[in-house]
Specification:
Blueprint (H helix, E strand, L loop, with lengths): L1 E9 L4 H18 L4 E7 L5 E8 L7 H4 L3 H8 L3 E11 L15
Antiparallel strand pairs: 1-3, 1-4, 2-3
Amino acid sequence: MKALRVQYTVRSAYTEQNKRNVAAVMAELRASGRTDIKYATYLHEDDKTFMHFIHYASAEAEGLVEKLNAFPKFRDELKPNLETPPTFDTFALAHSSWDVFPLPVAA
């Protein structure tokens, strides 16, 4: 399992549009019914810094978000509205108080 954190800051005037674009990505991902990816986006108290946190259960899941139909609009509209560029950090799970992904059921 791998986790990815992406963080960036947008212009204040763009916050609401970015929230709508992120919501479109999330709605499409939810509709896909995939269980090998868990994705959440957080908004900092400054109301313009976003942090995306994605858990991937498999290597196959890692490329899924970029393949969603809603993703190009999110990405393309974000670029000219950035105050600070995205930072990307990858993590491996060390410990958790909850099951990030359910354990496979034995046959």
